[in-house]
Each structure stands twice: as C-alpha cells, then as structure tokens.
Amino acid sequence: LNGERWAALMARALELAERGRYGASPNPMVGAVVLDRAGEVVGEGAHLRRGEAHAEVAALAAAGASAVGGTLVVTLEPCTHHGLTPPCVDAVIAARIARVVVGAHDPNPVIAGAGVARLREVGIEVVDGVEEAACRSLNRSYFFWRERGLPFVTLKMAMTLDGKLAPRGGRSQRITSEEARSAGYALREQMDALVVGVGTVLADDPRLLRHLGVNPNPHLRRVVLDSNLRTPATATLLAAHPEDVVIFCRDSATPERRRELEGTGATVVEVGGDDRGGCELHQVLRWLAGHEVSSVLVEGGGETHWSFLNEALAQEVVAFIAPLLLGGRDAVPAVGGTGFPSPLEGVRLRFVTLERLAEDVMIRAEVDGV
Ligand SMILES: NC(=O)c1ccc[n+]([C@@H]2O[C@H](COP(=O)([O-])OP(=O)(O)OC[C@H]3O[C@@H](n4cnc5c(N)ncnc54)[C@H](OP(=O)(O)O)[C@@H]3O)[C@@H](O)[C@H]2O)c1
What we know:
Blueprint lengths: L2 H15 L13 E5 L5 E6 L8 H9 L7 E6 L11 H7 L4 E6 L9 H8 L3 E3 L4 H7 L1 H9 L3 E9 L3 E3 L11 H13 L2 E5 H7 L16 E5 L19 E5 L5 H8 L4 E4 L10 H10 L4 E4 L3 H9 L5 E7 L9 E2 L15 E9 L2 E8 L3
Parallel strand pairs: 3-4, 4-5, 6-12, 6-13, 8-9, 8-12, 9-10, 10-11
Antiparallel strand pairs: 1-2, 1-3, 7-14, 13-16, 15-16
Bound molecules: NADP nicotinamide-adenine-dinucleotide phosphate.
C-alpha cells in the first residue's frame, strides 16, 4: 500500500462524508473506511447527523472483528472528548486497529491534534495529512467557524440583470424563475442560520423556513437585524417556530417593544451600534458563532448586503440573475449603502461556478482572499 492507495481510499471517505451534508452541522461532515489486515475494505461509515454515531464508530461497527490489526482511513482526526457521543479514539483503540490514515486535524480547540497524539501514544501508526486540502474544503464552514470564531457568511441575491432586488416602492414580486427559487431553498437546507434586515421583514413579511425537507433538523435559526425593534409581533416569521427567531437590536429599542417581541417566543439580543446606526455585525456574528451557528445565509435586502461587504464579513455570494431590466434610481439595489469610492476599494470576487437555471443564471463567487 502506498500514497496513491491512501489518496484513493480518502477520496472514498470524502464521498461517504458527503452523506452528512444536510444533517451533521454544527458538527463536521466526516467519512471513514476500515480495511482488514489484508487491505480489503470491510467497513464504511459517515457522520449523518449531530448526536448520532461518528463516522469512525459506524465504520468500525460495520467491520466488526475484521478490523483487528487493520487500517482506519478517516477524513478528520478522531475526537478525544465526550460530546454527545463518547470519544472516537477510545473506539479505535478498543477495535485494535493497527494504523490510522487521517485527512485533516480537527480545528476544534478541545481536539486540535490531540486525537492523532493519543493514537501515537498507544502505539498506533498514524499517516497524517492525506488529501488534507480536500478534507478541509469539504468542511470549509466548520473550519472557518472553529478557526475564526465567526460563521461562514454567504450573501444570496435574486436580482434583475441591472442589479435590482425589487422595483421602486419596495415590495418584491417574483423576479427569478421557479428553478432559481428552488436552488435558493437548497442553500437554506445547508445553512445553520438565515439573516435579513428589518426592511425585508416590513416589505415582504417572509416566513424564512426550510421548504425542501432535506435537512433532518427542523430548526433553522432566523435572524433579523432591527435596531429599533420595528418587527411587528404579528410578522409571519414569528408564526411558526418563534423559538428559532433571534432579533438583534440596539439600546435605542424600547423595553415595551422588547417585551412584546419576547412575548412571541423570539429571542431579542441587544448589541452595539455601527457607524450608520445599525446593529454592529461583528457582535451579531460572534453571538451566533457562540450559539452553534457555523454558516449563515444573508437573504437581503440591499442595505444588509452592503453592511456585510463594507465590514468585510461576507465570504461568498450566490447571485440568481433574471433576464429582466427594472431600472429606476429608487429601485432596491442588490447592494445599497454608500458604495465603495473606487474599483480598487470594491470587494473583488472570484467566480467559482456559472450555471443556467431555466431562463436565469446562477453565479457562485467567493470573496478574494478567503
Ligand atoms: N430579490 C431578493 O432576493 C430580495 C431579498 C430580500 C429583500 N428584497 C427586497 O429588498 C427590500 C428591502 O431591502 P432594504 O435594503 O430596504 O432593507 P434591508 O436590508 O432588508 O433592511 C435594512 C434595515 O435593517 C436594519 N439594520 C439593522 N442593522 C443593520 C446593519 N448592520 N446593516 C444593515 N441594516 C441594518 C436597518 O433598519 P433600522 O435602522 O430600523 O434597524 C436598515 O434600514 C425590499 O423591497 C425587499 O422586497 C429582495
């Protein structure tokens, strides 16, 4: 067995890890393959859902006694702590595995290399860093969240070819096709939280729920940036699962409004102000990161998108562009605010994918330097 074989097995483990794409968060997606002494695959596993078996444990269970003296190939180092399930290193040691092939180290500060160290300590051979870049990129939100203490932020914009979210006067009617809408809903399935500005709540009165039923976790945190608590207690987003709604405000919000919104079951959190009188986004994101939110989808509107870009707090943009021109200097732009004074100061992106969705185009772009 050589490096190429490890890489091929790691590719299989990465494929298995994908099975957790919609359920694992805020845990990482992890895949594992077990080989017996002779190098035959005897077990496979993935971490499908938070609180359920970790990938290594599932793969070892599938392998049973054939794992003795064998090899475990796993995309992320085995954990060493008691979370919702017992430490995976103990399961690896108990299974009498002789060698562990690891993709990436876990950036969780309570693990961070301790899994690999523990395995070596008890005499298990460790081959480290196999396909490390691919293992990290599979879990880019998880790594970003653990390493920076902030959620990975994606801005979603459904707009006209001339960059408008809605016509003059506000209320957005449908701009993009059904296919684009579904692709937008698919993004929600992968995120821990959605964020909108209060302008969008007042204009559209959205529900902001998951609609596709792909993510087994019914709870999606829904977040409103609302300095003065203008969100009505009758807002549709508070009608179902109000316990998942977090409304950020400033100290200018009145205690009466706060009590009224808390009375619906929502959480109201006061943060400091930014230089435009809005909620300070670093504080908002740090609060969310501390509440197990590793990824955020910002769904508008234009003022909110501007704030995230202006504060350099967005890592990715997904734009759905309809073949429609609305015009109007008072229409709602995809990105509002004051704008950057020169192209050099603008936010430079890198197009990652361009896709045709019915008559629309979907562009996924990463912010340079992420
Ligand atoms: N086509 C689409 O995909 C789409 C998606 C969403 C929205 N829309 C449209 O967009 C329009 C609303 O957009 P909008 O730009 O007017 O408003 P918005 O971005 O939804 O909300 C902006 C408001 O949020 C509050 N806020 C608090 N903290 C903030 C912060 N840090 N940064 C930015 N805002 C903060 C501010 O009000 P306070 O000062 O009161 O706190 C601000 O005026 C509607 O017409 C809606 O239909 C379209």
